[in-house]
Amino acid sequence: MLNVVLFFLMVSLLLYVILAGADFGAGIVELFSTKKNQQLTKKTIYRVMGPVWEANHIWIIILVVILWVGFPEFYNVLVVYLHIPLTLVLLGITMRGVAFVFRHYDAFKDKSQILYDWMFRFSSLVTPIFLGMTAGSMLSGQLVITDDYANYSFIDLFVQPWFNGFSILVGVFFASLCAFLASILLIGESHANDRKVYVTKSEKATAAVVGIGFIVICYGFYHNITFVTDFIKNPLTVGLVILSFILIFPLIISIKKAKKVTTRLLAGIQVTLILVAAFVTHFPVLIIAYNKNINLLETASPEKVINVLGISLIIGGLIILPGLFHLMKSFKMIKVLDD
Amino acid sequence: MDNLDAARLQMAFTLIFHIVFACVGMVMPFFMIVAHKKWLNTKDVIYLKLTKSWQKGVAIFFVVGAVSGTALSFELGLLWPEFMKHAGPIIGMPFSLEGAAFFVEAIALGFYLYGWDKIPEKFHWFTGVIVGVSGVASGILVVSANGWMNAPSGFDYINGEFVNIDPVQALLNPAWFTQALHMTLAAFTATGFAVAGIHAYQIYKRRHVELHKKAFKIAITFGAVAAILQPISGDLSAKDIAKRQPVKLAAMEAHYETQKGAPLYIGGIVNTETREVTHKIEIPKALSFLAFGDFDAEVKGLNDFPIDVQPNVPIVHYAFQTMVGLGTLLLIFGLVFFVSLVKKSWWTNRKFWLIFTLLVPLGFIALEAGWIVTEVGRQPWIIHNIMKTKDAVTPMPGMIYSFYMYVGLYSILTLAVTWLMMRQIKSLNYPNLY
């Protein structure tokens, strides 16, 4: 049953990164657009994301619940030592959700839209940055896990571990990944004469992801960050990264030709490869701290709890996944499957 | 202010807001589907307009409820890591099921909001029903998790360790049913009266009277029925608390001396120095009867409990009095509404509408007071008789700044939602907007 729980953990993480990532990215694309394209993007986002928007974000709740029920001590380390970036993520999620609703449901469309738009775009950028920073901090080897709080300063324990070069770079990398996903999604959702805008954006976003990804690796290597050195040495990881690099070429070609199905499939595969590579490098050690490592499996709850959690997840999955699929299909989100 | 107090205030503050958003988001879909059904049956466009207007309210409250709920699910860990570390595996089941119910709700709402003229009429309406049902299910499951904090079960506590965990038994803890019933009825009462009152105000102002009267009738029917049923649930809760958390009952009643045939106090000012209640109305033997169904039963007073396990008596007592007082008032006006269905002349009297306008906030004040009784009444325990709140708080210092930040954020959020709602209501008076 532990494998079932781990499977749902991985799937929720992947779906959150892809679905919510595209969602965050849409706001980033809007932020980095000209005024005319901003309005176009806003309309397209509403049409595409509106029906599925909330569902995209529930994956993070599922993730949190799996962690706190199934791996309580692992979750405990995150919430204690990464309290500040997680709080900032929460603020971002709150601001973004509220802005999304306000700008689409306000009864009157007047000047207040300007404020909602800026709230939406700004929080779309900072939320994934803080999310990425949180993930980066788990692996940066700078967390200090201790019971002896008096011997360390506030900065040492609660700020420096996440507010450092490596974590910030991972944050920026994740934001660029979101922008990449969104611009590819939007190619297929815009009318033929607007498609050019998103083709250009997709090309730029692809370049950004590759460029920033490369910088993250170089920075980590130069600063001797365990995760990165292990990432480079692990043959499986290297294989996955090489595969994802090779796939960039067909991706760029299909972006240029504005091919809806192929671009989405390739983009999805790219993100999955990167995520799986990062995940397997150190699995099951998913927190690399300065003074000790935390093995996810060692923090697993007693068997009975894992069994009940696994069964709940299977039942939930059976109810939710077909419903979600039907929802996406009904509103033509999964055009890939129609073609 | 120390870290514990700051964390407690932040939790209280976020919960107070989330509860309002979540209740409205949970109950309003029912008004929406009734109006929608009436539109399908009568083809009266006023009902269509009303449905579409309420649907916007549902969407706004759902999202604000969802984001504040997401924040809360994180805060449980961020503020009380030690609690979540031990309690998480035990009460994970209601939370994971709640996640599933919430997911179903989000999917159904996606269908409902965007399904107009796109999916078959009856299926479209049915997705609205699913929104309502899964919303109530979410509420019940979350309250079940809270019930566990009051009535911890489904594990053995040996040498400070939680062993032999049984998540199903924890889900079905002894408090879940009475708490969930009380909360669900409270949500319907509060939202029913609040929404009805907003429409009553529009009728009072003589705006679009026909539409608002239809809206009023739907909302108040839910509110009034729930308000009339609430005392039964309240009685169940009182008997349950008397048995499981006698110190909470004693604090609710500010009952200091253990006695047989204990009187019920109505009102009263608590003097914590002399441990007495002054200026109260006493109903002889009523407390013994309400708590145990026996006029001569012994009710244990606060003086017989160690001082370090007693909650803040004045807060619990005043909150309890507020809840019962306002609940009774709403019950009376629930009955007034049903009488008004016979005495139709009342509906032409502007005072009738003014009174219902004034009732708008009362249900929510009662509901918040009820939560204060539950939560403050449980202190100093975060898990009743097992773990103290002070032992569960985060070791990270400086929680006061986090508290200030949340106060700022939630205040802005509340102002914004209120402003948005006012604009929604105003837009109803522009006939061409829909």
Structure description:
The complex is a heterodimer of chains A (339) and B (434). Chain A is an all-alpha fold and 339 residues long. Chain A has one domain (2-337). Helices cover 78% and strands 2% of the residues of chain A. Chain A is built from 14 helices and 2 strands, in the order ααααααααααααββαα. Chain A has helices spanning 2-31, 35-49, 53-70, 72-81, 83-105, 112-139, 154-159, 165-187, 195-222, 226-233, 235-256, 260-282, 303-330, 335-338, and strands at residues 285-288, 293-295. Chain A is globular and about 60 Å long. Chain B has one domain. Chain B has helices at 3-42, 45-79, 81-114, 121-150, 167-171, 176-204, 209-244, 246-252, 286-292, 313-342, 350-358, 362-378, 399-427, and strands at 156-158, 161-163, 259-260, 264-271, 276-283, 298-299, 381-383, 387-388. In chain B, the strands form 4 sheets. Chain B has a two-stranded antiparallel sheet. Chain B has a two-stranded antiparallel ribbon with strand order 3-6. In chain B, strands 4-5 form a two-stranded antiparallel ribbon. At the A-B interface, helix 3, helix 4, helix 5, helix 7 and helix 13 of A face helix 2, helix 3 and helix 13 of B. Chain A: Belongs to the cytochrome ubiquinol oxidase subunit 2 family. Chain A: InterPro entries: Cyt-d_oxidase_su2. Chain A: Keywords: Cell membrane, Membrane, Transmembrane, Transmembrane helix.
Low-confidence stretches of chain A: 334-339
Major sheet of chain A: 2 strands, antiparallel
Low-confidence stretches of chain B: none
Number of strands of chain A: 2
Q: Give me the secondary-structure category of chain A.
A: mainly alpha
What does the largest sheet of chain B look like? 2 strands, antiparallel
Mean pLDDT of chain B: 88
Characterize the quaternary organization of these chains.
Answer: heterodimer
Number of discrete domains of chain A: 1
The number of helical segments of chain B is 13
Tally of DSSP β-strands of chain B: 8
Number of helices, counting only DSSP H or I runs of 4 residues or more of chain A: 14
Share of helix of chain A, binned? over 70%
Helix content of chain B: over 70%
Distance between the termini of chain B: 51 Å
- H and E order of chain B: HHHHEEHHHHEEEHEHHHEEH
The strand order across the widest sheet of chain A is 1-2
Strand order across the largest sheet of chain B: 1-2
